[in-house]
Amino acid sequence: MEFLKYKWSIWFTILDVNQDSFITHADVEQMIKHFPIVEGMSEEDAKLVCDNIEKWWTVYILKGREILTEEDLIKDFEYEYTLNKKAFIDKMKNCQEEVLKILDTDKSNSISIDNYVKGFKALGHDNDELLRQSFKLYKPADHSIPIKEFINIWLFFLTNDDPTKPDAVMDTIEAGLMECM
Questions:
Q1: pLDDT digits (tens, 9 = 90+) for 10-60
Q2: Cα–Cα distance between 139 and 143 in angstroms, integer?
């Protein structure tokens, strides 16, 4: 369980957009404000994307709270994981599927390096070079990663409790290619 708690702590840090050690609606607003993929979209499409971002944060992260601490997130995840591991994995899969639907604005069913960089920049991670290097650790074919594969990579990160198994997200973090530590 300690390994999962460590990874959930990393997940919290990734989601703490303004890096104030809390997740609040301010993080949601900052992500929406800085979400570059909406540029060039019609006003109607951009509003739909922003509404979906807000819904994702409300359903999967804040869960009706005004403020979420790292400790709260870890306790919630530990409780859900311990209570019913399969249900927790299903929920985390839905979480990843929903956020990647938002990122896949071109409906290509893949994440390009540009989508990847833009998505993480919207989360407050600004080091373009690190993000581009980290994308390579996912071993993209034809400069993109199929969404289903990307979902499985992040699902594995959020739910695998065996530190001996290869983990592309952990490899990225341990290589210092993601600003979350």
A1: 989 888 988 899 999 998 888 887 776 655 677 787 788 888 888 999 999
A2: 9
